[in-house]
Amino acid sequence: MDTAASLTTVDHGGGGGTTISAVHPDILQTHILTRLDGPTLASASSTSSQLRALSSQDQLWRYICNDKWPSTAHPRVRRLISSFPSAHRSFFSDSFPSLDHRRSPPNRRRTPPPPSQLFSAVDLHYQTKPVLSKALATETITGLMLGADFRIDLLDPKETVPMPVNLDFRDDTCESDLEENLTLSWIVIDPVRNRAANFSSFRPVSVDRNWLTGDIELRYVTVLSGDRRGEVLQCCAIVTCGGREGGGLHVREVSLQVEDMEGKNLGWEESLVILLEAVEGGKRRIGKRGEEKEGYEMCLKMKKERSERKKRRQKRLEVASIATAVTIFVAFWVFVVIRILQFLHLV
Q1: CA 306/CA 231 separation, integer angstroms
Q2: 116 and 234 housed in the same domain
Q3: Contact criterion met (CB below 8 Å) for 7 and 51
């Protein structure tokens, strides 16, 4: 019997049971429902009208959100969430599942102007230890006016955050340790439409060490649908870790950007359209561990195939250009020879 179903009866130890209505609501709300995670609480709410009423209390969902994403306890984020249709429950429903690019609509529709500010709630954990939790408001007008590449930086240029664990930056196993244990959540909040979405994979899909600086770069990627059929884009949250004295680690960069199939960073205007459409209309699903990395590898495969097709097309164009040049060259000399022969014949 699953957890949600077991909540509908109370076992007295003799093999019998009574309905959940026999349990005092205060006991349910204080000692039982507070022990459930978000998906289990959502499932429990569908088993009976009493549980549905009790599990709709916002303080339960606020506790779940604050526990999973400490950045949601920030006063500004709390005010934004309070405007959602069902407050923290709506926010959890938007942000907990992964965006599923395979089910997103292929054709984009005309969208209203973007909000003047885009809000981010970002949480970085090593296992269960919080490394960084931050709420950030980003002005969209500046990026749109400058026509710059879309990029949101969470930390100031000289700001660093120490890792709360004893990892030796110089150790060869450091990359694999971070790949397994360093998790990230980057939730983008649209304050106009009162919607949110998580644009970070839970675990990194790639971990690379810079051969020059020695920094370790972790990429957390969500794959999104592009404008054309079969086209995919990558929303990349990038965490850069550097070394400290004694071999320890600190986080020196955390950023968000959108890339096309060739790895080129998109500008603010296009990126905002893509992100806001995913926030409002993107399908959500609770995936299995490893699916995000599979999606990233699929994206790399498509990128490689696209590059190979481009090379073949360029090669065909080169061959066609050479053939055209040879044809023109031969035609020119044939014309010259004919003119010479005509001249000699006249003489």
Answers
A1: 10
A2: yes
A3: yes
Please provide residue 328's backbone torsions phi and psi, each rounded to the nearest 5 degrees.
-65, -40
For the record, the structure tokens of 167 come out as 């990892």
Give the domain range for residue 10. Answer: 3-56
How many domains does the chain fold into?
2
Are 44 and 193 found together in one domain? no
Pairing of strands 161-162, 152-153: unpaired
Buried b (16+ CB within 10 A) or exposed e, 80-109: bbeebeebbbbbbbbbbbbbbbeebeeeee
In terms of Cβ atoms closer than 10 Å to its own Cβ (0-12, 13-18, 19+), residue 211 is exposed
CA 193 to chain centre: 19
Say whether 156 sits in a helix, a strand or coil.
Answer: coil
Residue 345 lies in a domain: no
Rounded Cα distance, 9 and 16, in Å: 9
| pTM of the model as a whole | 0.78
Greatest distance between any 2 Cα atoms in the chain = 126
pLDDT score at 29: 67
pLDDT value of position 1: 45
161: Cβ contacts below 8 Å, ≥ 6 apart: 131, 132, 155, 250, 251
Query: What is the CA angle 217-211-166, rounded to 5?
Result: 55
Q: Are residues 43 and 110 in the same domain?
A: no
| Residue 196 and residue 51 in one domain | no
Query: Residue 240: which residues within 8 A CB-CB, separation 6 or more?
Result: 215, 216, 217, 218, 251, 252, 253, 254
What are the strands, taking DSSP E only, across 110-215? 117-126, 129-139, 152-153, 161-162, 182-190, 195-198, 206-209
Q: List, for the chain, all residue ranges whose pLDDT scores fall below the cut of 50.
A: 1, 5, 10, 12, 105-106
